[in-house]
């Protein structure tokens, strides 16, 4: 894949390291059959992630990890490398960490790894590149994308299934005024990046010291259910 033109400053900032993006795209899915190929504004869902990654100022390698022939063909038509994923890593119970570890081992990549799930189609190229900027300019070992939520854990409870007793999520919490609560964010699944060496041997981002790259809710749709796909269509078409 040809590298986009870089300013010297941006290339120096990333430390002249190779940046490999992994796009996981197994063929099976439960709630939305053939989800990665579902249509969104005239394109397969996965194409939105391809487009964002291919336009990155930093990414110099793009690999699809898939067990699906149609996904593989779509990638190869665009000159994207394909990593054949074994069937034991293509089931409903397969974790992202397992997919990442397999990809690192199979590609023998060194440098920085970016993990881009096709289920986040509204993530932009700037979201990817700014996450990488944050990674190389800060003290964190990895960066994950997040978005703000209105609900604070200080006000949350678990409801006992036996006697409906409320159990606070935050032990020994006090009564907080909304304006006194800290801002709360959640993972949105759009961008994960870290040095490859720190992800070995298990591919697990969540044992690293992480920084959060904040994205707006409008770009943070994570498509899991049919309603998520419809919401993305509304956003793209300017209806929501």
UniProtKB/TrEMBL annotation:
GO molecular function, one term: N-acylneuraminate cytidylyltransferase activity
CDD domains: CMP-NeuAc_Synthase (cd02513)
A Pfam entry, by short name: CTP_transf_3
Protein name listed in UniProt: Unannotated protein
Protein source organism: freshwater metagenome
